[in-house]
Specification:
single chain, 511 residues, 2 domains, 8-stranded mixed β-sheet, 5-stranded mixed β-sheet, globular
């Protein structure tokens, strides 16, 4: 499989002398092999779209990518969950939702180039976004998310089972597992990480949030462990509940969950969400796994803060339930100390972290994307097939520049969170006064003048998405001019490098 030439160039520009060429921080491998496996079987409700149908046993697939030529036998595993609105493509009204989505393949290739094993994984779909009753949409969606969490846990146990019973054919370390969700997958990575007990569903800020009012005045739980199976999918139903069957139009006797790979652990060690949100902020607790988040704050469908989730369908957006997205969950993670491990990354080895903190309020695990093309809520996605709906992004080049930033922000954080033994360099961030740095004018019309009392070796300019928009090397002078050329008006970050370290400064080009 091919890797974009931009990948190697970008890492050289973004990291330069700050990190040595080493596994998990910079690309090591140029191609990946892939294997399709069935990681389990479970029952889907999708056939119930047709009157008189029954739930049906479905194989659950994953495409496993491994770096070609790698001799390491204990590698971290990323379980990567695609998007799709819990409905099959193209009926989901989205631009993707399959294991073969361009972004899924691209992320798998990028991560395997660093030395990871990546399992692009599907999960059960099916809910009722077409109901005119919001509580019905909510009830069927929380059930879809619950099944998805069960499937994520099943996938984790599958890989642990391959280590114990198949001789570890994919060369993974079962104590270094990441769950990474894209779009709808982001809902699942968050729920899998922070919904740790079944009872938490009903101990939210609103205890009736996931209960249905019945005609007799009682409140009926939307999810029932004795009927839906446990949270991890290790038990099946133990009762028949005619009320549940009637509410969800499921024939009595149909199965919703069967256990897979019982006896293996469902835990993982790092969560990543690109978009998505958590069903309730109270599900996160102090001591939970670290979280890396990417989000477009203006996302209408998946709120970045705490607001109502709207799901896109062919009939338009449908409000469902209040959820909490990256903007709020990262504050909780910071306050709980869950992301403290990210503070151990030396500043000089984390250029994306420095940029992110200028736009995220000083958080350690959050990279927001502002000003995306066409205000896209998923600028990392693109399609190579005739777009449906018509506004699907077909610009793979633009999407890959966002993926550059996502991988660059992820790499050092995963290194410390998973304990991958990355050796960071000693280059450090300098105080401006130590090099007598002067940057003027601010704002500038066309040219920014940089002077110092130390030799300026390199200057890189990043936009607020972390993309390198200007690179200047071999300067070797005490002054340098950054030419605006075709840059848009706005805020940028200049990284000025000297022999003994670097300085980051904001620069602004005026209208």
């Amino acid at each position: 499989m091919r890797f974009a030439n931009l990948l190697s160039l970008f890492f050289l520009l973004a990291f330069g002398l700050q990190v040595s060429a080493q596994r998990y921080l910079t690309p090591q491998f140029t191609s990946a092999s892939s294997t399709v496996r069935i990681y389990g079987f479970n029952y889907t409700v999708l056939p119930l779209i047709q009157p008189g149908a029954h739930t049906q046993k479905q194989p659950l697939q994953t495409v496993i990518y491994t770096p070609v030529g790698d001799t390491e036998t204990e590698r971290p595993l990323v379980i990567y969950l695609h998007t799709g609105n819990f409905f099959p493509y193209p009926l989901n009204g989205s631009c993707g939702g399959t294991l073969q989505d361009s972004a899924c393949v691209e992320f798998a290739e990028r991560l395997t180039s660093l030395g990871y094993v990546v399992a692009v994984t599907t999960y059960r779909q099916g809910w009722n976004p077409f109901s005119t009753v919001e509580l019905v949409r909510r009830a069927t969606l929380i059930n879809a998310a619950y099944r998805g969490v069960q499937d994520v846990s099943t996938a984790i146990r599958f890989f642990r089972k391959t280590v114990a019973e198949e001789g570890n054919p994919y060369g993974i370390d079962p104590d270094k597992i990441v769950v990474w969700g894209q779009g709808t997958g982001g809902y699942l990575s968050l729920a899998s990480a922070y919904l740790n007990a079944f009872g938490d569903i009903y101990t939210t800020s609103d205890p009736n949030k996931f209960r249905l009012p019945l005609p007799n005045g009682t409140l009926y739980p939307m999810v029932q462990e004795s009927y839906n199976g446990d949270l991890y999918g290790t038990t099946g139903p133990t009762i028949v509940d005619a009320t549940y069957n009637a509410i969800f139009t499921i024939p009595i006797g149909d199965t919703l969950c069967i256990p897979n790979h019982v006896g293996y652990d469902s835990d993982f060690h790092l969560a990543v969400n690109m978009g998505g949100a958590l069903g309730d902020s109270t599900w996160m607790d102090k001591g939970d796994v670290p979280l890396i988040s990417y989000h477009v704050p203006s996302d209408f469908f998946a709120p970045c803060g705490t607001d109502v989730l709207n799901v896109p369908t062919q009939t338009g957006p449908q409000p469902v339930v209040e959820v909490s997205g990256s903007c709020d969950m990262q504050v909780y993670a910071q306050n709980y100390g869950n992301n403290d491990i990210f503070k151990t990354i030396p500043a000089g080895n984390d250029p994306y972290g420095a940029i992110a903190k200028t736009i995220n309020g000083g958080l350690d695990g959050f990279y927001p994307f502002y000003g995306t093309p066409d205000d896209s809520s998923s600028p990392w996605e693109w399609t190579t097939i005739p777009p449906s709906p018509a506004d699907c992004n077909t610009d793979g080049g633009s999407a890959r520049t966002y993926i550059d930033t996502i991988i660059g922000y992820f790499a050092p954080r995963a290194c410390v969170a998973l304990g991958l033994g990355c050796q960071f360099s000693s280059i450090k961030e300098l105080d401006e006064a130590s090099v007598e740095l002067n940057v003027a004018p601010v704002p500038a019309a066309d040219v920014v003048n940089i002077t110092a009392n130390e030799l300026i070796r390199e200057v890189y300019v990043y936009d607020l998405s972390g993309r390198v928009v200007k690179s200047n090397t071999a300067i070797d002078n005490y002054s340098f001019q950054v030419q605006r050329n075709n840059l848009n008006a706005g805020l940028y970050i200049a990284e000025i490098r000297f022999d003994k370290g670097f300085v980051k400064r904001k620069i602004v080009f005026s209208n």
